[in-house]
Design goal:
The structure holds two protein chains of two kinds. By secondary structure, chain A is an alpha/beta fold. Helices cover 38% and strands 17% of the residues of chain A. Chain A has helices at residues 24-32, 52-55, 73-84, 89-97, 113-125, 143-158, 193-200, 205-215; strands at 12-17, 43-44, 47-48, 58-61, 131-135, 162-167, 178-183, 186-191. Classes of the chains: A alpha/beta, B mainly alpha. The A-B interface holds A 32-37, 50, 52, 55-56, 58, 60, 62, 64-71, 75, 79-80, 82-85, 107, 120, 123 and B 4-5, 7-9, 11-12, 15-16, 19-20, 80-82, 84-91, 242-245.
């Protein structure tokens, strides 16, 4: 699926960008250990991805939210907190982070798409995992909320977590410490936003991305 | 396996059921209402028939209902992304299966109590053996439905397909369990098939409990059903994949 991919992730906020179907989700699923990997090895925090030792230490959120529609926001979080073995106070903390405290009693089915996605994001934050893998966490959110969440991602990174965020919105790229551009299952760039702009002479990340794609042909 | 996670899953499934009042009412009351209907149906024409057919229904309802409920619930887990999430969390597959078995087993206890008490009380169903053992058979039988439902949900892409497994998996067992034609009077081939189907043993256990005070035969039949439950749980566990393509 992702031929010849060789990559090391460190601290900070790493953005994974590229068009839909380019392999972003596959790479993320390989990191959390839910993707069948034909060859090669994926190691997370010193252990094989998805192994028992790291499963509680990787937070994962997808576009599919992965929460129970027929439970309330708080019930969903309380359940996953129990599975993880973290205290109930964590529920209040993560609700605050994703700005859903006011909706804690609402049944998920009645929430908007963006709110529903944030419940999934809150689950990923439970227990302060040292690695966060967030697949398009800001889709369908208004600009104010998007900016807020990006600030939170940086807070988490400042606390020492490695945060990998995918997006196909290029303007979010500038908020990352490091950028991975992915297209058709291949990594076309791995640089800081400034480095990428400098190297391509482009004025925006979007332009730089297009230039790199042209270059690769 | 962890007791904490198993209990968390069971509590979560029960909370989901509690929020769904209609499903809860159907789970707990529908079997008893259907038994009442059956009793009423025979009341003028052939009152003795209720004593012959009633015990078989006590085995058929918990199995059918739990099969349906579990196949749809676990299909939702598989398609809604919660299964993938649980599989990347520190959840053992047996935690998930155990949690489901615990939650639906508890529902089966209440459901069977209501059905058995209504049958043996106001409807006057003749039951020679101990009532608690009828409830026990019903619960193991319900767990069989739960385990099989979990297994077949792996082969359904939609809730529509999941419901279609009911006629495929449950109805043949219902036809061959001795409810319509005594098992020993079936054509030899069908008799052999009937011997290989778990519901036959649950019905046999209910029958012998209602006609004799001895429980030896019922325990033997119950052991066979329990064996099928373990096999179905194994099959169900095999369909819970941590990694998918």
């Amino acid at each position: 699926m992702l031929p010849g991919l060789d990559l090391r992730l460190g601290h900070g906020v790493t953005g994974l960008l590229g068009p839909s179907g380019g392999g972003k989700s596959t790479l993320m699923r390989a990191l959390v250990g839910s993707q069948v990997v034909d060859s090669g090895s994926v190691r997370v925090l010193g252990h094989p991805a998805g192994s028992r030792a790291v499963r509680a230490r990787v937070g994962y959120a997808t576009q599919a939210a992965g929460v129970y529609d027929d439970l309330s926001v708080a019930e969903n979080l309380a359940f996953f907190a129990r599975v993880l073995g973290v205290g109930a106070d964590e529920v209040d903390r993560v609700l605050e982070v994703v700005h859903l405290t006011a909706h804690r009693g609402d049944v998920v089915r009645r929430l908007s798409g963006g709110q529903r996605g944030r419940v999934g994001l809150a689950v990923a934050l439970l227990g302060r995992p040292p690695l966060l893998v967030l697949d398009e966490p800001t889709v369908g959110l208004d600009p104010v909320l998007r900016a807020r969440l990006w600030d939170r991602f940086h807070d988490l990174a400042a606390d020492g977590a490695a945060v990998l965020v995918s997006s196909h919105v290029m303007d979010e790229a500038e908020r990352c410490d490091r950028l991975l551009l992915m297209r058709e299952g291949r990594l076309v760039a791995d640089d800081s936003p400034a480095g990428l702009l400098g190297r391509t002479g482009a004025r925006s990340i979007e332009e730089a991305f297009l230039a790199l794609v042209e270059e690769g042909r | 396996m962890s007791a904490r996670v198993t209990l968390a899953v069971a509590a979560r499934v029960l909370t989901q059921l509690r929020r769904d009042h209609r499903t809860m009412a159907m789970l707990l009351l529908l079997p008893a209402l259907l038994v009442v209907l059956l009793w009423w149906m025979f009341s003028d024409a052939d009152p003795g028939a209720f004593d012959r057919v009633g015990p078989a229904l006590l085995a058929i309802f918990p199995f059918t209902v739990m099969f349906l409920v579990t196949s749809v619930t676990t299909l939702r887990e598989r398609t809604g992304g919660t299964m993938e999430r649980l599989m990347v969390l520190p959840t053992a597959r047996l935690d998930l299966l155990g949690g489901y078995a615990l939650a639906f087993g508890l529902v089966a206890v209440v459901q069977s109590l209501v059905t058995v008490l209504v049958s043996a009380g106001p409807l006057g169903l003749e039951i020679a053996g101990p009532l608690w053992m009828l409830v026990l058979v019903a619960v193991v039988d319900a767990l069989l439905g739960t385990a099989l439902g979990l297994f077949v949900s792996a082969f359904a892409r939609s809730e529509f397909q999941a419901v279609q497994f009911m006629p495929a998996v449950v109805v043949p067992q219902l036809l061959l369990c001795g409810l319509f034609v005594p098992r020993d009077a079936l054509p030899p081939v069908l008799g052999a098939v009937s011997d290989a189907l778990p519901l036959s043993y649950a019905v046999d256990a209910m029958r012998s409990l209602s006609t004799t005070t001895g429980t030896g035969e019922a325990w033997r039949d119950l052991a066979v059903v329990a064996g099928f439950v373990l096999a179905a749980v194994g099959l169900g566990a095999a369909t819970l994949r941590r990694r998918t393509a």
